[in-house]
């Protein structure tokens, strides 16, 4: 029987990306699949802490093995910001990617140091035990948007060693090299050891 895990997210883009990365090795259930409509608070001051809060909530309330992630864009010239505030960097309610990108590009106007990294932390809770995994991809923030695929900051992030932003690459290539892919590969390697 195929392994089932709940991915504690309401983000359809993340869910699609994770399912594409995992393929048919593991059946990934969404919060919707388990009828969870809670808005799980992300009140920790680290990516790892936020991932753990979400996974712990699902395990505590539903008793299902699950994992959760939190991802942040960390920009050197901004002292690591927006970091845990990446999704709501421009303020306001919800996740306004356009407003977030506008603010980021504005904050970096005139900056020559445009180094940045995407970092994903995944917390897996399996049988009540917690495991953490991390994926990082380094790169730089471009001066303007490029590309139309992907989501979030993808149009302004160019990974090291590539001439295109994540948004120009297309999902297959991005999913091979992204921060989330690197964290998920560690998660999968761990789960496969146990099969």
Oligomer: single chain
Our Rg estimate from Cα atoms comes to 17 Å
Instruction: Name the helicity range.
Output: 25-40%
Mean pLDDT: 91
Order of helices and strands: EHEHEEHEEEHHH
Spans with pLDDT under 50 lasting ≥5 residues?
none
Report strand %.
25-35%
- Main β sheet profile: 7 strands, mixed
Number of beta-strand segments: 7
Please work out how many helical segments DSSP would assign.
6
Distance between the termini: 11 Å
Which structural class best describes the helix and strand composition? alpha/beta
Task: Note the overall shape.
Answer: globular
Question: Can you offer a commentary on this structure?
Answer:
- The protein has 195 residues and is an alpha/beta fold.
- The chain contains six helices and seven strands.
- The protein has helices at 12-22, 47-62, 97-107, 166-169, 171-177, 179-193; strands at 3-7, 26-29, 66-75, 82-83, 115-126, 129-141, 157-159.
- The protein starts with a strand and ends with a helix.
- The model has no long low-confidence stretch (mean pLDDT 91).
Summarize the structure.
The protein has 195 residues and is an alpha/beta fold.
Question: In terms of topology, how is this protein built?
Answer:
Elements: E1 3-7, H1 12-22, E2 26-29, H2 47-62, E3 66-75, E4 82-83, H3 97-107, E5 115-126, E6 129-141, E7 157-159, H4 166-169, H5 171-177, H6 179-193
Parallel strand pairs: 1-2, 1-3
Antiparallel strand pairs: 3-4, 3-5, 5-6, 6-7
